[in-house]
Amino acid sequence: MTILAIPGSLRTGSINRSLLEAAVEEAPEGVTIRILDLAGLPFYNGDLDNPADWPAEALAFADALRSADGVLFATPEYNHVFPGVLGNALDWASRPLGSVAPLKRKPVAVMGASPGLIGTARAQDHLKFVLMTIGAQVYSASGLVVGSARAKFEDGQLTDSETRRRLSLFLEAFVTYVHAEPVPALC
Hints:
The chain is α/β, with parallel strands linked by helices. About 35% of the residues lie in helices and about 15% in strands. The strands form two sheets. Strands 1, 2, 3, 4, 5 and 6 form a six-stranded parallel sheet that branches. Strands 7-8 form a two-stranded antiparallel sheet. Helix 3 links the parallel strand 3 and strand 4. The longest helix is centred in the C-terminal third of the chain and has 19 residues. The protein starts with a strand and ends in an 8-residue tail after the last helix.
C-alpha cells in the first residue's frame, strides 16, 4: 500500500514536514509513505481548466494522487486556517482530468503540528470541510493534533515518545480505513 503524504508548508525546516518524515519511519508493515513537495505546483488558473492545457507539474500532481491508495495531509495553521499553498493544491485536485477529479473517492487523513497549545485543530477542521466538498473520503476520526510542537521536535526530528506513539496508532487506524470498502461519493 502506498500513502502519499503532503506537507502544507513550503518552509525549510517545517515541523509538519518533520511530522511526515516521522510518519515515514512509523509506517505500518507493508505500507510505504511517500512525501510530495508542493513547491513546484503553479497557481491554479481557470483559463487552464482544459486538461490539455494543464502544466506538467499539475499533471504530475494529479497522477501522484491517483496512484496513491490514500493521502495524508500535514497542515500548519495560519490565521486559524490551512495555508494557501495547500488551498492551491486542492484547487488543482478538485478539477477533473478525464472524467474524475484526482481526490474524488480517495481516502484521506489530516494531521498537523504547531507551536500553539491546540496545535492545528482549527486548520484541520477547515481542511476536512474542503476535502469533503471535493469528494474525498475523509477519515472521520479526529486528525492527529500535535500542540506545543517546539518541545516535541529537535533538529527536525520528532523526539517526543508519546507523540510518536500517537502517530503510530493514527497511521494504523488510517491504513485500516484505507483497506475498508470505499464509500460511494454523494456528488
